[in-house]
Amino acid sequence: MEYIYLGNSDLTVSRICMGCMGFGEANNGQHSWTIDEENSRQIIKRGLEIGINFFDTAIGYQSGTSEQYLGKAIKDFAKRKNVIIATKFLPRTVDEIENGISGQQHIEKMLDKSLQNLGMDYIDLSYNIICGIIKHRYMKY
After folding, report:
1. pLDDT tens across 82-137, in order?
2. Residue span of the structural domain in which 119 resides
3. How many domains does the chain have?
4. Which candidate in 3, 5, 61, 122 is catalytic?
């Protein structure tokens, strides 16, 4: 596997990033074609075996179950420090805007939920699904 720096960051990633949109509970989100946890785990494990260290998921993929499956698999098959986890968060809802939830509050809430879903202490890369805003290394303080 070849590895490169991600943009101008200090993150060294495999040239192949495993997208996790296809992982998650099929009856818990917008797609009916997603792969269950056991099969997702096997795909993630094989990716790790061939040197993939870069995984991309989102809180919106199957209502967060993609993040949950990925987090459990990484915990079981890899050392957290050896993988790069990217996730995406959804934009504020109309209700949040009307209730005075700031953009920063919304992002923190989304990232905290992603950390909970992933079962991790930090996320290496996060961004807004719509705007592409990048926040590097989010940790709950």
Report:
1. 999 999 988 888 999 999 999 889 989 999 999 999 999 999 988 766 555 555 55
2. 3-139
3. 1
4. 61
For 78, half-sphere exposure in the C-beta direction (CA atoms, 13 angstrom radius) is 26
Q: Cβ distance 23 to 69 under 8 Å? A: yes
User: What pLDDT, in 10s, does the model give residues 31-89?
Assistant: 899 999 999 999 999 999 999 999 999 999 999 999 999 999 999 999 999 999 999 98
Residue 89: give its domain's CATH number. 3.20.20.100
The pTM score is 0.88
Q: Is 61 a catalytic residue?
A: yes
Tokens of 3: 């590895």
Stretch (H or E) spanning 106: helix 103-118
